[in-house]
Design brief:
Blueprint lengths: L6 H17 L16 H8 L6 H21 L9 H14 L3 H17 L11 H4 L2 H9 L12 H19 L23 H13 L20 H11 L5
Length: about 250
């Protein structure tokens, strides 16, 4: 049985909920059976427990609010807003450790990643979907010989890697790399062979969700992340099937 935490942290999340809904009234979930993503206030109320101390409640709500604000600022065209699993995973880690230190750092790093990869830097990705739904994590886990899936998609080891990788991408772009060139216009970057226009993004990723081809079903608080499938190849194959290859 859960109980509502103090009013102030929830009020913070309620304010961000209003900002999200002003920007994206549909507030889509990638899960095609749900329609709308969970409101931050509702998510907090479902996850926080009666015996959580005030420090944990405040840190959790503040971190979640900052992450959601950063998504709005740096990914203004983002479509899918599921944060159920990321929030639950970070909170579970804090309870297991009996400390808010990693929770605070995890949210801070995730917030920083929005800035690094978003529309206001030379990287200029259009959506945060590849991070939030685990495509980046699955690729990293499969590629790194020492990884076996035991490091989760929102744990500090992976978040720190993503920060370092962002810095590497910045250097490649500055050198006008063949795969990551300096962009000559104001359009978002798309290094993928399929269209990432909004209608195509919705159609492709909700079809992937129907087929169980999303590494992290971020719309489920108790999701089981999966890395050891060919998610990258499957995404291209489904895009081709749907006629969405660029």
């Amino acid at each position: 049985m859960t109980a509502a935490p103090t009013a102030s942290p929830l009020a913070l999340l309620a304010d961000v909920d209003l900002q999200i809904e002003a920007r994206s009234p549909e507030r889509r979930s990638m899960d095609p059976t749900r329609g709308r993503a969970t409101r931050l206030v509702d998510l907090a109320e479902s996850l926080l427990e009666r015996d959580d101390d005030e420090l944990l409640v405040s840190a959790f709500c503040a971190g979640l609010a900052e992450l959601a604000r950063a998504q709005l600022e740096h990914f203004p065209e983002n479509i899918f807003f599921d944060l159920d699993y990321p929030a639950a995973a970070v909170l579970r880690g804090a309870r297991k450790q009996g400390s808010t230190a990693d929770l605070v750092e995890s949210f801070a790093l995730m917030t920083q990643l929005q800035r690094i990869y978003g529309m206001h830097t030379p990287i200029r990705f259009r959506y945060v979907h590849d991070f939030s739904y685990g495509f980046d994590w699955a690729k990293w886990t499969a590629r790194e010989a020492e990884q076996d899936g035991s490091v989760g998609p929102f744990e500090l080891t992976f978040l720190r890697y993503m920060r370092t990788r962002g810095q590497e991408l910045m250097a490649l772009i500055a050198a006008d790399d063949a795969k990551y060139p300096t962009l000559r216009d104001h359009k978002p970057r798309n290094p993928f062979p399929f269209s990432r226009e909004p209608a195509a993004e919705i159609e492709l990723h909700q079809e992937l969700a129907r087929r169980g081809l999303v590494p992290v079903p971020a719309w489920e608080t108790d999701a089981t992340p999966v890395w050891d499938r060919a998610f990258g190849r499957s995404r291209v194959e489904v895009a081709k099937e749907l006629g969405l290859l660029a």
